[in-house]
User: What shape does this take?
Amino acid sequence: MSILNKIKRNKDRILSILVLLPSIIFLAIFVYGFIFQTGYQSLTDWTGVGEPEESNFVGLQNYKKLFTGLLEIRFRQSLVNTLFFTFFFIIGCLSLGLLFAILIDQGIRFEGFFRLIFLYPMSLSFIVTGTVWNWLLNPVGGVNRLPTLFNKDAWEFRWIASRTQIFQFDWLQLPKGIGIILLITLIYLSYRYWKEEKNITAIITSIISLITLVWLLSGGADKIQLLKVPEIHGFNLAMVGIILAAIWQMAGYMMAMYLAGIRGIPEELREAARVDGANELQIYAKVIFPMLMPITLSAMIVLGHISLKIFDLIYVIAGPDNATTDVPGVLMFMTSFRGNQFAKGAAIAIIMLIMVAVIIVPYLVSTLKSEQEL
Assistant: This one.
């Protein structure tokens, strides 16, 4: 019997491999193969003229120009726009989604109707959302005309055309900022490893933290000169309308996730908290919110992934030529297919891939590790 079982297991294993093999081959060619090709082209000077094989290998020159070239200020502002967009987009979706979920969880009348209303924007594509919000955010029409319904003067906020910036900083201070973020991260990891009694890892992390601190205090970050002149970047108010449109579309998704999480919490836990004297606010703060943390983390990963590679919404609302609302995806399209600078466009694409990987890969590693522990 054992021989027959072994033969059957081998047969099932071979059959599984044969079933998965076409998908693996197509994935290797059309995903990872093209990623490799894009990565290689980003290391050349190919401009779209002639065959890619005829281009010259220039190494990391395209990346260096993007971050330090005086003429690449638009790319650097697009990175800043993406970071601000990601932050406000995630905060807005999480906050509104949680608020809607809590309100619906109160057993209100017509619950199904309200759930449909909140979820409906999610069924639309970003192209449709962008078209509608382009009308709404037109500086000479749209919401700016609302006061005229009450015989008041129209608003003059320029929305997607505004060039006003807030939260400004100098690009020359970027190395110091990255160093501070790295130091805070290392200190947190050191504390976590010491708490988990992972002594060797904790010691190594603590040493790296100390080296980073000494490097910052000694002015090591100031010695890294990205540019020869100051370059001010900040949060363009033209991004406000785009952020509102993105939140409007994805807040319903967060509501659905949070509502499912809240409804999945056993009622016995709430009753036990009430017996202990907790009011409704304390129940949410001490019982419900902590149990929703896994959902929040998963949602942040999904929303962060969407925001870092956003293209269609901004392309439709603000257009490809609006530098104040640029993000790497739009700039990559403009650089490659309008400017015929395919090597530089490939470099921007690889930078976008790295930004997404920084968010996705740690989450996947943590998830797989948790599954193995179970």
